[in-house]
Amino acid sequence: MAAIYSGIHLKLKSTQTPWEDKIKLARFAWISSQCLLPNKEQVLLDWCTHALTGWYNKKVEFPQNVLEGLWCYLDDLLHSRKLHCLVKEKKTISLRLNMAQYELMVSLLSRLIALACHQLQQHSVSPKSDLDIEAILNQSACDGDKEELDPDPQDDLPTYSKYNPKSTEKLTSAKIFEVLLLALRCYSSVQRQQANPNRVFTLVTNQLFQPLIFLRHWMSSAALSSPKQLLMSQQMCRDIRINIDTILQSALFASEHMSLYQDELTKVDSGKKVSGAKGPLRPASVLLCKLTVQSNCDSSVYYAVKSSMVSVLFKLFLESYGAAKGERNEEQGMLCFSFLVTLSEALDLGLESHLSKKCPSPESPPCVPESWNLALLAVESLLNNALVGNIYNVAADRIRYGEVQLKFYRNLAEILLKQAQPSFPAWFRCLKALLSLNHLILEPDLEQLLSLAWVNLDCTDSRVLRAKQVTLCSLIQTYTKLRQLPKFFSDLLSVISESTLDHFKPPLLCEEVSSTLRACLLDTPPSQAIEICSVVLQNIKKCVPQKQMTDEMKAQNEIAFTADSSLKVMSLSQILHSVLFSVKTLDNGSPLPLVRQTQRFMETMYEVIKELQQYFVDMEMQSKQSQKTPKKGKRALKVVNSETNIPLTQNAVEATLLLRYTWVEMDTLFSLHCSKYSSPEPVSQVTSENEDQTTCPLTEYIHSLLSGKDFTQSAVIANSPFGSLLLRRLVLQQMKKMLSQMGWAVVYCECSSFQVAYWYLVISNLPLILPFLGDKDLHCISTILIGSQLEISVEEMDTSSNCLTISLISSQFLKSHIFPELPSLFSVTLQFLLQSLLSVMKTAHRDLDIFQNTTEIQKEMIVEGIKTSLTNSGASVELSSTQTKDIFKILRIMQVLNPDGMSAEDLSTSFLLLIFMFTSTSCQTKDLDSSSPALLKQLLEVLICLLDGTHFPNVLKFIHGGTLLQAVVSSVLRHSLKSSENKDWSDLVKEMQAFIKLLVQLIITRSSSVRLNLNQLASFLCSQGTKDKLANRPSSTNTATHKVSTLTTHVLLASLSTFSRTLTCNLGKSKSLDELLTQILTQTTATLGLAVESLLKPNAVLKMSSIVCQAYVVEVVTVMLKCELSLLSIEENKHTHSISHMPLYRALVCRPIEFLVSSLDLLSTFYSSVEKTEEKQDTNKKMNDLDDLFMKILHCSQKLLTDNWTSLTNHSELESAVQKLLSHLVEKCSSERFNLMLLKIREGLDTAKLRSGNYKEVLSTVILIKLLFCCPLPEACFNALWLIAPQILSTMMFLVKSSSQDVSLNLPFTVPVVTTVTTLLRQGEGVIANPHHVTMVLGAIQCVPLDRLAPAAYNATFTAIHEALFAIIKCHPQV
To answer: What pTM did the predictor assign?
Structure first.
């Protein structure tokens, strides 16, 4: 046995033994029991791993089949039953991981990365590049491995997947990334266990760094690509990038390397060089070398890789060596900054020449990166990381480090400004980041920055404009905090003055910048704000032609204003307007120096405006003289007429108008609020000039303004909408100012208008004189107020009059917010109205006890009368037509009164009296149909207004809310026996519903006697008598009885549905309340179900009418269903309650042709109820039921649009409702259910149906397509729909061409199809990528006939074609 042991051991070690024989011997030794090797299993495992490690380290060479045999042998050992038994026996057997095996993992990981990069490159959305991953691997390897990858990755799968060669054929692209993620995680854990961080750093930088950064780049590209082109999920993509970052951070920025980075980056180099090949590790230089070395790929691709990795490396460096535990560490901050400087060299921005002491040659061209966009994005990320990492301490940098950071950032800012790239948003964001670091970085070049990024920027890209606005807002906010806003504006105005404006540009102060400036000026000292205005005004004055200059111009017959100067004046005027309208106004508390500074500024501005106005006057006079002067040869005058040169002077005229309007507005404001301020403009010049005239000086002044004496450029102003607007505002402001200066002018009135003027004087001064008025005076005023309203007719009360009358003044005063603030007059007026009502009712019925005392209303007697009316079957007071009209007028007046102005006593009296009238009055028989419902409706409107009053709860001290509700419902029920179906009756029932809703909600909100009041109304509505009325079967010969039963049913259904809906809205507030509401809702739902079932019976005597129609029944059933769903949603009812009327609901849903128009809400609610009630069923059965219901609703909708009774008008009315239903169906639609819908659509777009004459079926499908494309869809459904959109477009284009051959189908079919195509084009903006489909639409539209059409058909056809062409131009400009 010893010979066997010695022989096998020696043969395994011997170099003479072939490797194939060694593998056979090893397999024999493992399975044979005759081979007695000490610790045999461990020895064989070590031999196998040692052989594999030697091959990967290039120490041993053997053929490829031997390598695969070793891997198979190792796999068999690890999966053998013998090894598992040994492990169960707790025998220690280990697979030793030494450094060699770590290098083996590095090599295998490199191969996996190569495969992954190859797959990502093949499926990348970016342009293809000649990237050779194997060449990168060979370049990264230190030992010069010369093995090359085969171009076909499928042929090389056995070579790369060495972990398990047996599964090579089953390896797919998705499996590659799963294996890669697993390998990265394993390698990361093994790497953390290595004891020599320097060797890990060397291995990673030499063999893994470039493959990893390329892999990360392609992973980022894959993450940004569309979901259709992804080879893996987004989560796997993120996990792989996170693992790459973890590997790089632990290998490149280990804690043991911090001293090396400090020695290399922050220590001063002594000049001594270490002899020999080995020396201290310089990690920063190594990383920079690996970043900047050019790999075997396109330079643009590699620049994208390294620019993205620069920010990643700096972020990892900050996380590893930043401030410890959040504490500020200046040395670590300086270390991070030094690393930032080192990384910035890889971006090729030319910072090396700026950082070196040698000045670059002025003749040398500037260093330009491969891609400015990528470089700017990298710089932005570096600066933002530096800002977040807080590595820049301004004070420490200045005191200890000689402003090294400030100089670097200044050099970077100089490069960004000298080689400005304002077409990229990242350029603005880089400047904003530099500004956030330190404003001194950009301050020396502030003027250049403002010129490039603001004044002289010509760009319309929305992303660039947004970045520009954010940068400018940050600039303004920064200089506001520094209290240097005047300096900022000084530099800005300097840039504007030096610039040459040859064409009109958008305003400098856009909305975002203006709002920021307004907020900043409020935080700026007022003196600085006035200083800014003065600087702006000085620049405006420089652009204004001076007098001596104007005379010279006159002599030379030339125009002083140029296009440049007029545009500058306009821009500066806009800035001055914005600044002045944002400063704090002067008031009596303003300091005197500020007032004097403002006074001097306003005087200077007034003089500048006068100069501008005088210039235009001189220009107009010169133009008129030139028209009278005849031309004389070649030396004729060159004076240009203002009317023929409107574009040249328009900006200057508009600027002058803007300055004048701004000055007048501010001058008026300062004069009103500050007594120490005096206006520079002479006061009432027009008054002194017109003292001897009989006309009003104000009228004369306004006439002078409107005549344009100050602004003679009438032609210029007329052609300018902005100038016309400014002139109108200026005239209005001048009028206000003159009124405040001149006071009240003497106004003469005739005898006919004296009373109106006197009444206006009294009403306008009532708040002042009311404390001095007695009771008789108040009664007199209230008499005139109400009497003037009662004298006019009801129609006149609803129309407004252009002339001022006593009734109009009184009406406006009653509606004003001032009247409720005069409680004494308000109370007297209300009492006058109530006494007027009592007098009318007393005239109608003198025997009632309530009318015996006319001086005071007895509330207790009114309450007794209300309770008595609950048991009486008829009304106690009958009103004539004249009395009804008088009550109408009084109620109209009461309706406009604000109930919050009533006292508790007045509101209680008013409400109780009106309730008594509601329950006890009716019109005479001959006026019953037209007057009674209208009167009751008007009463309810006033009662609803009083319900909103602050003191309404005081009413409930005299009578229960349940009694009020029962009284109103019973009164309406009593009137239903005598009324007929008309609009007034429908309005009355709607007002009754509003009253029930508000009062029930108030009862629940007050939480006082809730059970008593709600049970009282529920007992009345659900009583046996009510059920008998709902189940009434009148005689078929008595048509009057049929009408009575219909109206009674209408009232009961409306009351029950409103009551139930209000209770449902209050579920879930408290357990006790839920218990009460559940009990009541169970009763009301049962009663409603009884009523609906009696209506829907086939042999029911009570038929549908115009009021109780199918739509109304569906609305009631919807309320029932929502009530039952709400009851199910309560925790206590989940196991005790169920939907009790499901057969009724199913019966309604199964009749779509009759009910679908008004049943869409019911369909949506029923769909939700089916989803909720079938939660406990089997999943497959639930899905089948939902699919059936889904398709049934879709089929019903399509059938509704196909019916012969539907027309184009019906379709337009149905579209919004059907779209709402479709939106509900597809809101949570699964892919399978949506596919069923698409199949339904495909069946509907059958051209054979069109040829057979059945175009309505095709038309219904076309309408459904239009509505479906307008619905919000889940992501999967959205992608599926737009995937077949080109096929739908092609089919509809064929339909258009086919239907165009028949002119009779033009209006009913062709126009709707073209409209649907237009909707698809608009919704497909940015989605339809192939322009061929849009071009196909153009070809089909040309076939639509426009000849020999009726005017209506021609108008519809032309409009449809026009909208389609407009959609193509607007949404698909590439065509």
So the answer is: 0.54
